[in-house]
């Protein structure tokens, strides 16, 4: 089993950490069959110029081409609120290159709750998000990446649709846990719940100590360390800032609730949610020839 991420000293083509959004994306491969799956891919977005580009996704495509892999799945852990997904772009490009059936995009079956919620909030019609995901995973569903057995693990708390992917002795946990020095993800998004996140974290930490937990983001303090994609279950049990052994559910809920009240919204939350409920498809071109995303205004002062 091969997992591509961004170890120190590797070439740029293996650089799968996006520093603009502090996001880890992964390529998990079965070398025997040359089959691989993509997890949580990133679409580049410049909020100043409001420009979408594909540099990061194209680097991933180059890696796939260089290794001669066939992609069996594109896997999303949840509807991200901090970066745009490249799932749709990659799906189309991979299908065009191979002239084969496009690889399916999979996500937890509860995504429909968030599609309806955010579709209404941003004025996105249901015809733009119904059916955009090819696979709506049931809890504990089993899938295969070549000869590698994968299993879907429901991990609610950060969002209600959140899942992880357990492949071999590795769990790709999305935004459930972070590096032990950082703790856990926030729970203040619609449908988020600190009690659920506590139970999801304890589910992960009930695995064997040697199992690797691969995270969705890392935010290292400058100079302290570089971004690290994984830590073992044993390390989390011993030293995770928020959820190590001995932390009770009541303690965790109180800490997480107080902390979340003071957190600012993610910088790309509005753009991300509108694109991600569409599985990475961009808004349709309107009568004026533009693709448009809605960004709400905050109004200060009186007299408006």
TrEMBL record:
<dbReference type="Pfam" id="PF00753">
    <property type="entry name" value="Lactamase_B"/>
</dbReference>
<dbReference type="GO" id="GO:0070813">
    <property type="term" value="P:hydrogen sulfide metabolic process"/>
</dbReference>
<dbReference type="InterPro" id="IPR044528">
    <property type="entry name" value="POD-like_MBL-fold"/>
</dbReference>
<protein>
    <submittedName>
        <fullName>Beta-lactamase-like protein</fullName>
    </submittedName>
</protein>
<dbReference type="GO" id="GO:0006749">
    <property type="term" value="P:glutathione metabolic process"/>
</dbReference>
<dbReference type="InterPro" id="IPR001279">
    <property type="entry name" value="Metallo-B-lactamas"/>
</dbReference>
<feature type="domain" description="Metallo-beta-lactamase">
    <location>
        <begin position="22"/>
        <end position="217"/>
    </location>
</feature>
<dbReference type="GO" id="GO:0050313">
    <property type="term" value="F:sulfur dioxygenase activity"/>
</dbReference>
<dbReference type="InterPro" id="IPR036866">
    <property type="entry name" value="RibonucZ/Hydroxyglut_hydro"/>
</dbReference>
<keyword id="KW-0479">Metal-binding</keyword>
<dbReference type="InterPro" id="IPR051682">
    <property type="entry name" value="Mito_Persulfide_Diox"/>
</dbReference>
<dbReference type="GO" id="GO:0046872">
    <property type="term" value="F:metal ion binding"/>
</dbReference>
């Amino acid at each position: 089993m091969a997992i591509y991420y961004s170890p120190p000293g590797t070439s740029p083509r293996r650089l799968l950490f996006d520093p603009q959004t502090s996001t880890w994306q992964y390529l998990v491969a079965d070398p025997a069959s040359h089959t691989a799956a993509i997890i949580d891919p990133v679409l580049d977005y410049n909020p100043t110029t409001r420009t979408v580009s594909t540099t990061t996704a194209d680097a991933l495509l180059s890696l796939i081409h260089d290794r001669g892999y066939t992609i069996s799945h594109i896997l999303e852990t949840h509807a991200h609120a901090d970066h745009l997904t490249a799932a749709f772009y990659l799906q189309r490009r991979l299908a065009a290159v191979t002239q084969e059936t496009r690889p399916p995009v999979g996500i937890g079956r509860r995504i429909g709750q968030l599609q309806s919620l955010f579709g209404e909030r941003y004025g996105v019609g249901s015809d733009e998000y119904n059916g955009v995901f090819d696979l709506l995973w049931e809890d504990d569903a089993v899938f295969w990446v070549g000869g590698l057995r994968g299993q879907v693990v429901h991990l609610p708390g950060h969002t209600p649709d959140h899942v992880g992917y357990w492949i071999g002795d590795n769990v790709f946990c999305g935004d459930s846990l972070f590096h032990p020095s950082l703790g856990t993800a926030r729970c203040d998004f619609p449908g988020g719940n600190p009690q659920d996140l506590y139970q999801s974290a304890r589910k992960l930490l009930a695995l064997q100590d040697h199992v690797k937990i691969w995270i969705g983001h890392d935010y290292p303090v400058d100079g302290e360390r570089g971004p690290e994609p994984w830590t073992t279950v044993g390390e989390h049990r011993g030293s995770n800032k928020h959820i190590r052994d001995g932390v009770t559910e009541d303690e965790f809920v109180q800490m997480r609730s107080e902390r979340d009240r003071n957190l600012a919204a993610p910088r790309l939350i509005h753009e991300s949610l509108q694109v991600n409920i569409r599985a990475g498809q961009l808004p349709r071109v309107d009568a004026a020839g533009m693709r448009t995303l809605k960004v709400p205004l905050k109004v200060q002062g009186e007299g408006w």
